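User: C-alpha cells for Contactin associated protein family member 5, please.
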Amino acid sequence: SIPLNLSLSGKINACVSPSACIFCSSSGAGGWSPMVTDQEPWLQVDLREQMEVTAVATQGRYDSWDWVSSYLLLYSDTGRAWKQYRHEDGVGRFVGNGNSETIVQNKLSHPVRTRFLRFVPLDWNPSGWMGLRVEVYGCSYKSYVADFDGRSSLLYRFNQKSMSTVKDVISLRFKSHQAEGVLLHGEGQRGDYITLELHRGRLDLYLNLDDSRARFSSHRVPVTVGSLLDDQHWHSVHIERFNKQVNLTVDSYTQRFQTKGEGHSLEVDYELSFGGIPLPGKPGTFLRKNFNGCMENLYYNGINVIDLAKRRKPQIHSGNVTFSCSQPQLVACTFVSSSSSFLSLPSASPGAGGFSIRFQFRTWNPEGLLLSVQLNPDPQKLRLQISNSWLRLTLHSSGRQKSEVSAGRRVSDGLWHSVSLDARNLQITLTVDNEPSSTIELWEQVQSRGSFYFGGCPATAPDCQGFAPAFQGCMQLIFINSQLMNLSHVQQGLLGNYNELQFDTCNIKDRCLPNLCEHGARCSQMWSSFSCDCSGTGYAGATCHNCEHFGNIFLAEKKVWTVLSHNSTAPVTVQTSSLQKPHVMIFNYSASAEQLRAIVSGSEQCQQEVVYNCRKSRLFNTKDGSPLSWWLDREGEKRSYWGGFLPGVQQCSCSLEENCIDMNYFFLSYKDHLPVSQIVIGDTDRMGSQAVYHIGPLRCYGDRSIWNAASFYQESSYLYFPTLQAELASDISFYFKTSAPSGVFLENQGLKDFIRVELSSPSVVTFSFDVGNGPAVLSVKSHVPLNDRQWHYVRAERNAKEASVQVDQLPLRFLEAPADGHLRLRLSSQLFVGGTASQQRGFLGCIRSLTVNGVSFDLEERAKMTPGVSAGCPGYCTGSSSLCHNRGRCVEKSNGYICDCSQSAYGGTTCNQGDISSLFPESSVTYTFQEPFSVMQNRSSQASTSSTDSRAREDVALSFVTSQRPAMLLTVSTFSQQYIAVILATNGSVQIWYHLQTDKKPDVFTPTPSNLADGRLHRIRIHRVGKNLYVQDIHRKYTLSSDAELILIRSLTLGKVARMEHFDEEVIQGASKGFIGCLSSVQFNHVAPLKVALTNRGSSLVTIRGPLVQSNCGALAESHTLQGKTSTSMTLMIYLFRLTNTRKDLAVIAGVVTAVVFITVCALAVVIRLVYQQRRAQRSSGSIKEEHRHSMYTDYRTELHLHNPVRDSVKEYYI
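Assistant: Done. Predicted C-alpha cells:
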C-alpha cells in the first residue's frame, strides 16, 4: 500500500487519529465519519507524489453502524481540478461495504497516475451513518516532464539527412486546457509526413507513405481518436506502425488502420518536432497552432526525448521549453440537473455605467438557460440561453415587448466556449468566442438588480422560471464586472448560493465514445443520453442493431419473394471486348455482402435472371472449351456454367433436358454461388460481333428456419448451444406453444450477469437480465392464457439504450437503461434452451424458429441427440402449408383443427368461401364503426404487420362484376372529413381517391386505364403504409402527399352513398350512380362488411338500403371468363337491375329474380359439365403443357394474405 496524508471536506464526527481514518485493518479503532450538517462530504488523501494507483480498498468505521455502501473516486494532480474515475464501460460508481468490518477492494480496470484521491460517498447504511477507512494500492514511476507554452518546441535532429523506418513506436502522455495544438510533426521530400495534433479536443493523426499527390492536397484526411482531451488531465498516446499497418491508442481506445501511399517505410528529413511546427513557411506543411500544455515520458523508437533535452544532448534543440509542469489549474463547476441546478452570485462592485459578465461553458444540450438577471429600470429582465444550439440574448421590457439577438453557431458540441456580455453606452453587446458581436440598442442605460442567476433559477424566483430548461454542463472563469468569482467560497457558503452543483470538476462525458451505435451509424448525444441515426445502414432500432428488410417484397404464385436490386438494371450492349481487354461489370447490391449471405442461406430457394443475346460472340472456345465469358459468384470465384444447371456443366439446363424455349433467357439457381457479383464478356472484338446482357435482381423466397422446431416433454431436459454473444446488444425471437402453466424458454448465465426469457405464469411472459446494475424485469401480460396449445410469438431485445419485449401483437414493453450504469452483459455458461442449468423450471411444449442476433438456431439437429427432446412438433397447425385460407386462423383441437374465419372476408370450413352479393342502383351497404374501433382497430391492424412500425396502414380488398360506368364501389369516411373512395370512372377505369388532409386536394390514382366495366370478374387489393400505396393485383406503387392516419373512422359504404357533403365532384358523381352488379370478398383491415351484412342481418353495425341479393353471379362471371365468353345470365341479371330501377313492385322483382336464378343454375350446370368433360379428355391424352413466367417488381413490405377465393361450394339466397 501507499503512505497517505488525509484531508477532509469539513469537520469530522469521529476519527481517533489520521492513521486510523486511513488504513483498513481488522483491529484497532476509529475511522472517518462526517458531521450530519456536512451537505457534500468527502475524504481526500494525498499520496505525497505522483503515483500509479492500481486499486483502492474501503472499510466502515470501527465497531459502529457507520459505513459507505457506494462511492465515487476522483483524482487530481494538484488537488484543485478533479476528474471522476470511470471503469471501462463508463460506470463511475464503486461498490462499498455492507458492514463496518469487512474490507472491500476494488481493482482499477486501468491504472491512474495521480497524487490526490478523493472518496465521495453516494450511499451508506440507512440505519446508521457514513463511516470510512481507506487504503490505496500502487507504485511509484519515473516521470520526465516538459512544459510547452504555445510558442516552444523540441526538435529531435537525425544524424543523417533523412530517417527511413519500416517500424515506428511513439508514446507520450499529455495534458492541456487548449483544444488545439500540434504534438508531433515530421515530413520528407518524397511526400511522406506524420502529424499528431489536438483538434477540437480530439487527437488527429495524419500519416502518409510515399504519396506525392497527398503532399500538395488541401484535403488531408486524418484518423481521429479520443474526445474531451482539453480537460487539464493526463492522457496517454501510443502509436505503433509496421509497414502500412498502424495502431493508434489514446487512453483505452484503439483505432487500427492502413496508411495511404505506395510505400512501406516512413521517410522523414532532418528532424522531428514536438510541441509545434517551428517553420510554418516550410513548403508542403500546413499551418497549425502550437501545443500549449505538458508532455510526459515522450519516447520515439525507444529514445527518451525529454531526458535528452534535460541533459542538453546535441541532437535535441529545445526552444523555450521548461522541465516542470506549471500549467494553471482552472477550477470548474458542473450543473447536474436540467430542472433544479443553479448558481446565484451577487453583483461585484457595480459601476455607474452598467455591468459586464464573462464566463466559459461547455455542454452537449441544445437547450438551456445560461444567465438571468433583473434590470433597472423595473420591470426589465435579461435572459441568455442556448436555443437550438445557438446563443440567444433576450431583453424583456414592460408588457410583451422584447428585443432579441443571436450569436454563436453550434455551441452544444462539448467544447469550451467563451461568452462576454456588456451593458454600457446604451447598448447590450454579446460576443461568443471572439466572433463578431451582436448588439441590442437601448433607450436608456440599465443596471443589474439583485443577483445574477447562472444555469437556472431557484423556486423562490418566479420571474426567472419557465423560460428554458436549466443548463446541464460546466462553467469556469466567471467574471462579474471584471472580478473573478471564487467558486471555493461558493461551496463553503461564503459567497452566493447554489443547488445541484459539483465543484472542482467538469464532469462532462462523451457518450459517443466508444460509439455504441452499430453498423457505422452516426451517434449524437445530450448530457445524459445518446441517440443513433440508422439512415443508410440497413439496420434499425435504438442502436441500429436490428436488420431491416433489404429488398422489395412481392407476392407471386402464392409465394412471398424478396427482391434485392443492384446498380445495373438496364440491358448492357458490349462491343470490342476481348480476353486481353474484356468488358467487366461489377454489381453493387442494396445490401452488404454479410446481409446477402444471410438472406440467401436462410431462404428456401433463390434465383437470378440472366438475359443474354449475341451476334458472332461465343461463351466458350469451341476448340478447347475454355470460357470466353464468365461471371463471379458472391465470394469472387470464377463461374462458367449457365442456365440454372449445377456447377461444372458448361451448358444450360434446358439444353440437357431438351426443353429449351428461349436460349437467351435463363435463371441461375444454385444458392451457394448467388448473387452474381461480376460479369466478364470477352468475345465481341470481331467485325459485326455484339453481345447484350441483362442480369436481373436476386430473388429469394421462403424461410428455412420457420418450421425448425423441438418438443420438450421432460422438465429436466434442455438443449444447449454456445455462449450467447450479447455484450452490448442482443435480440431473441421464437414461437412457442404449450399447455404448461410456466417454464423457462432460454437462459444464459455469467458470474453475476444473466439473461432469461420465461413463461412465468399462464398469461405472462417475462424477460429478465442483469448487466451489473441489479436485475431488470419486463413482463407482458396477455388478456388470454398463453398455455392454450396455440402458437405464440415472443421477441426480446436488450441494447445499451433500452430493453423491450413483445408477445404476439400485444403492445411492446420498454425499459430504458440507466444513464450511467453498466452496459456490458458478461456471460460465461452455455446457452440453455427449454430449461436451465439447474434442471428446474424447464419448459414443456414446443419451440420453433429460434433466432438470436439474426442467426437461426437448428433446434431439430440438436434435439436428435438430446434425451427428453424430440425434433419437430406434433399438431395439425404446425405444418408449413396453410390449412386455413385468406387470413383464417388455425386452431388446434384435441382430435383435429378448426379455422377461425372471424378476421377474414371469407367463410366456410377453411375460410375459402366468398360471400357474393348483387346490388341495385339504389342499394347500399353501410358498416358503422363502433367508437372504440374508430382508432384502435386501425392501430391494431398496424401492429399486426410490424411491431415497430407506427405508420398509418390500411388494407382494402374487393372483387366485382359490373357493366356500369361510372359506379361507386367503396367509400370510407371519417368524422374528421377524411375519406377513401374506390370508383369506376366514366371510361370504366378504376380510380382510388385518398383525402387525408382536409385543407389540401385529394390524391387520385388510376392504376390501369383499361375498362373494368366489362362484365368480367376483377379483383382490387390496396395496401397503404405511411405515404406508400400499393395496388397489388395490378402491381403498382404510388406515393401519397401525406402519411396521416384516418382519425375517428365513421363508416364504410358499398354502393350508393347518402351523405356526400365532403366529397369531390367526381366522387359525388360516382356516389350518386351507386353500383349495379356483383360484389364479393370485401375487406377493410380486419372488417368484412359484406360478410357481416349477409350473415348478421340484425346487426346494429350494418345498415342495408334497398334490395340486397346473395347469389352466385360472381362465380358465373369467373367461370365464363375462363371460357372466354360473356355470361348470358349475367346480362339478364344486369337487365333485371335496370328493370327494377323503373318498377318498384317487390312482388315482380322477386318473381323475376327467381326466374333468372333458375336460368343461372341451369347454365352453370351445363358449363360445369362441359368443363369437366374437356379437362378429363385433356388429362387422358396428356397433352396439357403449362407455361407460366411472371415477374413483378414492387416495393411491397408485407403479405396481405387476401388470396383469390377457391370456391368449394356456393350457397344461394333469395331476398
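User: Anything notable?

Assistant: The longest strand covers residues 104-124.
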